[in-house]
Write a structure and sequence with these properties.
CATH class of the largest domain: Alpha Beta
CATH superfamily of the largest domain: P-loop containing nucleotide triphosphate hydrolases
Subunit structure: Homodimer. Forms a membrane-associated complex with FtsX.
Order of helices and strands: HEEEHEEHEHHHEHEHEEHHEEHEEHE
Family: Belongs to the ABC transporter superfamily.
GO molecular function, one term: ATP binding
Strand order of the largest sheet: 6-7-8-3-9-10
Low-confidence stretches: none
Bound molecules: adenosine-5'-triphosphate
Number of strands: 15
Radius of gyration: 23 Å
Pfam family, one: ABC_tran
Number of domains: 2
Oligomer: single chain
Structural class: alpha/beta
Function: Part of the ABC transporter FtsEX involved in cellular division. Has ATPase activity.
Mean pLDDT: 93
Strand content: 25-35%
Largest sheet: 6 strands, mixed
CATH topology of the largest domain: Rossmann fold
Amino acid sequence: MQLVTETPPLLRLSGLRKEFPSARGPVVALEDITLSIARGSIHGIVGRSGAGKSTLIRCLTGLEQPTSGTVDLDGTNIPALTGDELRAVRRRFGMVFQHANLLDSRSAADNIGLPLEIAGWSAAERRARVAELLDLVGLTDRADNHPGQLSGGQQQRVGIARALATRPDILLCDEPTSALDAGTTRQILGLLRDLRERLGITVVIITHEPSVVREVCDTVTLLADGRVLESGAIGDVVADAAGQLHRDLVPLPPLPLEHDGGYIEVALGDTRSGTTSVDAVLALLREGGVPAEVAAATLETIGGRRVGRIQLEVDPARTGDAVRLLEAAHLAPEVAA
Ligand SMILES: Nc1ncnc2c1ncn2[C@@H]1O[C@H](COP(=O)(O)OP(=O)(O)OP(=O)(O)O)[C@@H](O)[C@H]1O
């Protein structure tokens, strides 16, 4: 983790703004986006629908011209490029999508080789590279299968191999596991981590799934309404008990459908405000004269940091007292609605 955050950024976005014209005036899709992505890191971009994730990716890859700001890739400002230079820089990005969108008429090997054909590689060079790529994604024995003979996870592996064919520096993955079940998702995330280790490639993952970020990302950016709301190393963002990413990445089970309002949530573990245990929270409330019970709790290691959340049930008439006691101890309580 330390190594990843200390290496110089491969991508640096600065003051990025994107406006779209519309009949009702300009729509601001991105506003003052400044963030860095370290070489060899796995960076997650999260945010609700409409937050600006797709627009950001399109600006990164030069498919969309930002209204202002810079996208610096290794010292090259992508929005300033045109023609051949822009086409060359686009080849430094490999794209993986939710659905692999493979050609049914072609075998796995021939799907993987397609970008090499387009780039003018000879048949012999293609064969050697495709064999390497099939091995890299663990599909050597499936080379001759057509997409219809492959599972969803295997198809996604072919999609990843195809994205890596021309040796890009950055693998941009747009919701790569959204169409997959939990087990297959873990395998694909394991593959992405493995590729980063073996190839040193930088991976950017757009996702709405907090579990993806928890499992595989070193750093993360939360977008909301076109702005960066939070950004940083996973261990740091989960330690900010008042932050949105802390709540998203350290989930608790939902509250009972019908309840009388006596539920309070508090961060546990090694947060920025100190270390908190379940026992300490319960003792604090008991000593303050507000009995509480644990309705749910979670504690896990994320980004090398032990963090969690606890859901407390208190007498609804004493919720305010409980909140005051917890606030006095700097525990950032939240009354669960
Ligand atoms: N070509 C366009 N013309 C006008 N408005 C656009 C255009 N593209 C995006 N927008 C607007 O910009 C904002 C950000 O959209 P964007 O598609 O980047 O969000 P997103 O986070 O990728 O959402 P989703 O997860 O649903 O794909 C939205 O308000 C959207 O309506």
